[in-house]
Amino acid sequence: MKSTILIIVLLFSYCLNAENVLNRGNGSEPDSLSIHLAEGLNSHNVLRDLYEGLMTLDAKGQAIYGVAESHTVEHNVWTFKLRNNAKWSDGSPVVAADFVRGWRQAVDPKTAAPYGFLLKNIVHAEKIMQLKLTPDNLVVSALDEHTLQFRLWQADSALLEKLSLPIFYPLPKNPGNNHNIISNGAYKIDSWRVQEKIVLLKNPHYYDVDNVYYDQVNYWVTESQSSELKRFRAGELDITESIPDGQIGWLRENLPSELHISPYLGSFFLGLNLGDKYLKNHKLRQALSMAINRKILTDKVLKTGQKPAYRIVPQELTKSTLLQLNTNAQQLAKELFVESGINPNEITIEILYNNSQNQRKVAIAVAAMWRQTLGIRAKLKNQEWKVFVSSRKSNKRSAFRSGWIADYADALSFLELFTSNSRFNFYRYKNGNYDKIIKEITKSTDAEQKYHLVEQAENLLLHDLPVIPLYYYVSRHLVDNRILGFVDNVADRHLSKYLYREN
User: Is residue 240 included in any domain, yes or no?
Assistant: First the structure.
């Protein structure tokens, strides 16, 4: 009898614990869990659960106060008051000096932080990045334990949203490493099994811990969208990172209430290495772009609501005229290719992409269009995400999958990628006029003037073609009907602390 009671108690305990575990698909293996070195969305998803900046995001993806409880602005001097109950996962207080430490490390050239450029508006940041000053010259200071102050060169209407990004997170004196991180968010790291999962546990020292429902969050590595779907249907995942586009019809018919497809501030484009012996030919790049039928790509290949893209910046962030497919595109592509002087039998373009069924479909479609219209052969090459992140920076690749999701709702979030000194300029693109226009945009306080400059910058990109725009993203997830608090938003950011299960 006692053994039977014990079994019942254990089963009840198991069910109770299972109720408080959230299983999330997270795509590829995160490239890093360092707030300064992380690049991919799958890294940032985890970091938003582990850390909290001066600002954080609400369930709708909008910026709200995080560690900060108030702020003032006067003559580009920003002063933030920190909440006095913010703590690190080891129980020590989060203080203003932790932000100073984190930001100085972010702009230190030795760190090589890919998102460090987002701090360049802080006085002296750019000179520090250029090795003209040391990091301690960054004009940010702790006036006391709970007061942080810094000065900008110029006004920045998007700053509060930027302050929610990982690059602006605080850094403790002893941050730990990827497998033993000291963090200040709703969760702390428990374990990281490479190519399997990252396990997070509720941070008992988080100031709002009483309102965090899930005791544990598992981020599962799920590079195959079909495998992810199977795991979701088996109840092993509560939320998927994506969906297999090829099964959209079945999903709409069989899982309509679980399927979430929503507008997303992101653009997908094909990156071109302008240092490649063939791709440096401008006529060839034009021909390659004109040969791709975006409408077929979105409607027949992807089929999940993506919109054809003929520009880089999503229409929601610009007043530029929406371009349409030229009805004579295929003929123009052939003529441009002839003008390039390249023999189709002598050229093979490699298309590099990360492991993903959806990415493979896009690469196959693009290769087929090039072959059919121009007679050009393409070689497809896929790599695991971490390897791909490194490979796309190499001079050895020619064409590669690329794209960008807005870090903040502003055209600059896209346009700054292509400046000559951008760490995300994997295309070897250099245009002094373009760089000059981007600087003018950053200084502009007049909305109409800014829209005009944005259009100028985009027109340069469309002429020079360091990348070929293909489509605008939509977010695509499957969410268990019992999960509440998941709100579709254009940023596609869903912090685990807002999610809970229906009882």
Answer: no
**Closest Cα to residue 363, out of 413, 399, 334?**
399
Total of domains in the chain:
2
- Give the 3-state secondary structure of residue 66: coil
Report yes or no on 7 lying in a domain: no
Inside any domain, residue 138 = yes
Exposed/middle/buried for 357, CB within 10 Å: 0-12, 13-18, 19+?
A: middle
User: Which residues form the domain of 344?
Assistant: 266-475
The owner of tokens 């295929």 is: 330
445 in the same domain as 337: yes
In-domain check, residue 444: yes
- 418 CB contacts (<8 Å, ≥6 apart)? 425, 427, 429, 434, 461, 466, 467
Q: Are strands 21-25 and 77-82 parallel, antiparallel or unpaired?
A: unpaired
| 162-217 per-position pLDDT tens digit | 999 999 999 999 988 767 899 999 999 999 999 999 999 999 999 999 999 999 99
Q: How far is CA 114 from CA 108, 111, 156, 306, 378, in A?
A: 11, 9, 20, 28, 30
Cβ proximity of 57 and 495 under 8 Å: yes
CA dihedral sign, ordered 96, 98, 103, 104: positive
Give pLDDT, residue 324: 61
- Is residue 220 within 8 Å of residue 22, measured between CB atoms? no
| Mean of pLDDT values over 370-394 | 93
The answer to whether residues 64 and 102 belong to one domain is yes
CB count in 10 Å sphere of residue 97: 17
State the DSSP code for 312.
S
- pTM for the model stands at 0.88
The three state secondary structure string of 72-101 is EEECCEEEEEECCCCECCCCCECCHHHHHH
Residues 371 and 432 in one domain: yes
Tell me, yes or no, whether 67 and 82 share the same domain: yes
Same domain? For 450 and 490 the reply is no
Residues 441/454, Cβ–Cβ less than 8 Å: yes
What are the pLDDT digits (tens) for 402-457? 999 999 999 999 999 999 999 999 999 999 999 999 999 988 888 889 999 999 99
